[in-house]
Amino acid sequence: MRAKILSAAALAVLISTVAAIAPRPADAHGALVTMNGPFQPGTIVVRTNERRLYYVLGGGQAIRYPVGVGRAGKQWSGTSYIDSMYIRPAWSPPAVVRHDNPNLPDVIPGGSPHNPMGAAAMSIAGGEYAIHGTNRPGSVGHFVSYGCIRMYNEDITDLYSRVSVGTPVVVQ
Question: How many folded domains does the chain comprise?
Answer without folding.
Answer: 1
